[in-house]
Amino acid sequence: MASSMSDLVPAQRVSSPTTNDYVYPALPKALEGVNFDLTSSLKDNKLQKPPPDHLQARKEALNKSLDYLKQQQSHFMGFQANQKMSFDELNDFLNVHLNNIGDPFVEGNCTTNTKFMERAVLDYYASLWNANWPHKSSLLGDEEGNSYWGFLLTMGSTEGNMYALWNARDYLGGKILLMESGGDTKKAAAPRLVYRQAAVPPNAKPVPSQARSAAPFPECCDEFCENYFSPVAFYSEDTHYSFTKATRLIGIPTFGVVGEEKYPGMCPITEDGKWPDEVPSHEEGPEDGTIRTESLAELVLFFARRGHPIFVNLNYGTTFKGAYDSVVKAMAALMPIFQFYGHDKRVIDAGGEESVRTGFWIHVDGALGAAYIPYLKMAAEEGCKFEDGGAVEVAPEFDFSLEAVHSIAMSGHKWMGAPIPCGLFMSKRRYQINPPSNPIYTGTPDTTFAGSRNGLSAVFFWSYISKHTLKQQIDKAVRCQGMARFIYNTMTELGKKLNLDLWVARSPLSLTVRFRQLNDDLVFKYSLSNETLVVNDVQRLISHVFAMEHVTKELVLMLAEDVMKLGPKAFKDLSDGTAGASDGLTTMDAPLVSCVPFQGRGFSGN
After folding, report:
1. pLDDT more than 90, % of the chain
2. Nearest residue to 112 via CA among 455, 417, 437
3. What DSSP line would sit under 60-124, residue for residue?
4. Is the pTM of this model over 0.85?
């Protein structure tokens, strides 16, 4: 029986919390006493405008917030975000709703977009990354899909990583996109785009031959066809924490999860056969922080011979160590495996037509490195030197000049600097599998990750690139590398003065320098990122700083002076005895779904 209108009683608002109920983090000291409460505005529905005392409190909250943020910005050193920005000329854009909904190469019906800027930015990075540009459709002659496709991100490179996983999941999983008639007649009788699952081809499993038997790999396993469309993800233990979350969200299981579920006790890289959560990384030396290629190859071999498609993420500037995985070295180890098991060329039935795909996907998370290493490469080729006389080193290749690279993600707020997170995703047109939706409402294909996309990102990107010459970009890259060298030398000398091993370290070409973790006050003052690293089976509490464009020698020397004044008390493990262990942790005898970090890798300040 339906309820009458009189039965519908409005829900009662929860009463205001008392002081004892308050569980949010404490305000910074600079903001103590400032009233940020908004719920009080729900108490009186008769006010036509805010009272004067409310407006005054609002003004005070904004002013003190800006003062606090400017103060923190002036000492900001611990995260890869460039704080040197000048976007005052763009203020008026803030009063326009900018929405780049849909595909960047189709205008659509939402006309207050900045796709004209977005396409210019994409072309710039396509050229910088040696992609085939400009973007072309098959109607314009790109029948093989070799030209690039991409879009600007509303989040940072995390969104690009998620899109790469999504695209790879369907591409490797044998999903096909077909135009079919019919559909929902309530909307239209027009054709619709639909997903279909391709069938495993009868000749999917490579047949042993005399030539193949001479190869250094074992033959395919019996379950090869069973796993033909079941991709598995691989990434190193130095990968950004969000990748674990993304694999769970998108639905590509990691090798550790699949290994424990289907192949327990069979891991080829551990003595006890137990599967690690991630591919091991080098802990020290010239490859510090990079993926162990030999371990990656052994793991990929295990799954490739069982038919699984392979997704590999390689980092171009890891989150904490700033290390660069060698894409060339990784592919030299992996391509013979892919070729032997037919992963280099898989033919599937795409609605009556043959579709040739790879059985692997190589993604490069170039959140920071992809944005500036190309300039550093130019500097090295020109013979540029640092202030201390050292020669600029050449970084490993990572871009679309390498045929095996399927996609690249990059953040905009890190190297370029922007007041909001932003970024860029790029792939090749032949790897696209668009979502099964072509909405008439927006007038543009729904090919990106989100629906509405922030149009300000394109404005910030375009503004930055258009006012910097190539020479300025090269000089900036050399300066920042030189600053990282200066920080390393300064902290090394500081350790000598204190007669204390500060564990100072810097991975090759990294913009970050690591050292013994500082105390909570210094961590807050300089916005430092911290991590617990294991070196030679010993846990170490580590802080790091990034040599971004805004970091000056004066700021580095200020940090060193603060540490020198405090001596041993400047360091976390020497001032409060913390060793980095976690108490109260429990384990559960249940299937592993994923391993999601809750601290470390710059995830928190503690």
Report:
1. 66
2. 455
3. HHHHHHHHHHHHHHHT--SSS-------GGGGGGGGS--B--S-TTS--S--S--HHHHHHHHHH
4. yes
